[in-house]
TrEMBL record:
One matching Pfam family: Indigoidine_A
A molecular-function term among this protein's GO annotations: metal ion binding
Provenance organism: freshwater metagenome
HAMAP family: PsiMP_glycosidase
Keywords: Glycosidase, Hydrolase, Lyase, Manganese, Metal-binding
Coiled-coil regions, chain positions: none
Gene3D superfamilies assigned to the protein according to its UniProt record, in alphabetical order: Indigoidine synthase domain
Signal peptide: none
Keyword Transport: no
Protein name: Unannotated protein
Entry keyword Phosphoprotein: no
Length: 321
């Protein structure tokens, strides 16, 4: 894709037959611009995990560490977020800090993007929104912690993350530790199949359960190296199935104690119901509950997950080059 064309093109707002040129809606960081020009491997990173998934001040430290891990392995990190109405692909240090610490950062899915841009507001991007923006920029590898999915009770609440439909519409390889046990894992796996989203386990035959290495469900496909994943990505292009994402499920090395995990999950779900938490507030609420109830253990595991996914994503991006 002609990236410079996207960058240079101001977006047009047509009001009563008048064409008003607004400021460019997309800005690349200096590092990402240079990487695109030099055809270097790039890894996209989401920002919701920074603003709404991890507590301050570890959120900023983890975000910085993730970018460093990716650079150390020969790839360039592109953390994606919206700041004051501009979509940022790659954040400068002060912008990363703003996403971590400012109080006016909302959580944006794909449907929110145009609204936030037009209104000049700021937001962190979910997996759905990040994948959309990254794909639009020609970035094809994306590291995150856990995907959104089908929530428990979705047969009545209809609460299914837009992450699933978004990933059924873009050419993206997403590295994650499965989906969190706060979701209906079985229903999520069924939806991934329906939406024709590819799924492989990295060095495992079991679908990981985020804090746990095994969610209780088997995986049909297993891969054991970044090169193997790159071959799958390329095979998709050759046979025309690349416009739906490939998920690489990478289990955490040291999992949480299963009994403690189930206890935190039960109290978290009960608290959410008690407090009438719903919609997009559910995921941040349950994550926060895990962090508080486990006295930081879930935060440490969460951090390990993201770092490990960043490392694998960087290796895949390099293998694809
Ligand atoms: N999983 C995590 N941490 C997170 C999220 C998921 O381990 O912070 C975020 C991701 O940005 C994901 C979003 O895209 O939650 C899903 O939110 P929802 O269920 O409202 O679609
Ligand atoms: Mn939801």
């Amino acid at each position: 894709m002609a990236l410079s064309a996207i960058n240079a093109r101001p977006y047009l707002l047509i009001t009563s037959a008048k064409v008003v040129h607004m400021k460019s809606a997309i800005k690349y960081s200096a590092e990402v611009s240079a990487a695109i020009a030099a055809s270097m491997p790039i890894v996209a990173l989401e920002s919701t995990i920074i603003s709404h998934g991890l507590p301050r001040p570890s959120n900023l430290a983890v975000a910085i560490e993730c970018e460093r891990i990716i650079r150390d392995r020969g790839s360039i990190p592109a953390t994606i977020a919206l700041l004051d109405g501009v979509i940022h692909i790659g954040l400068e240090a002060h912008e990363l800090e703003a996403i971590a610490n400012r109080d006016d950062i909302s959580k944006a899915s794909i449907r929110d993007l145009a609204i936030i841009v037009a209104q000049g507001k700021s937001a962190a991007t979910t997996v759905a929104a990040t994948a959309h923006i990254a794909a639009m920029s020609g970035i094809r590898v994306f590291a995150t912690g856990g995907l959104g999915g089908v929530h428990r009770g979705a047969n009545e609440s209809f609460d299914e993350s837009a992450d699933l439909t978004a990933l059924s519409q873009v050419d993206m390889t997403v590295i994650c530790a499965g989906v969190k046990s706060i979701l209906d894992v079985h229903a999520t796996l069924e939806r991934l199949e329906t939406l024709a989203i590819g799924l492989v386990g990295y060095k495992t035959n079991r679908f990981p359960g985020f804090y746990l290495t095994d969610s209780g469900y088997a995986l049909e496909h297993r891969v054991d190296s970044a090169d193997e994943i790159a071959e799958i990505v390329q095979a998709r292009t050759a046979i025309g199935t690349q416009f739906r994402s490939l998920i690489v499920a990478n289990p955490v090395e040291k999992e949480m104690d299963k009994v403690r995990h189930d206890e935190f999950l039960a109290t978290g779900l009960a608290n959410a119901a008690l407090n009438g938490i719903d919609g997009k507030a559910v995921t941040p609420f349950l994550l926060e509950h895990f962090h508080t109830a486990s006295e930081g253990e879930s935060l440490d595991i969460n951090t390990e997950i993201i770092k490990s996914n960043c490392a694998l994503a960087a290796d895949i991006a390099v293998a694809l080059q």
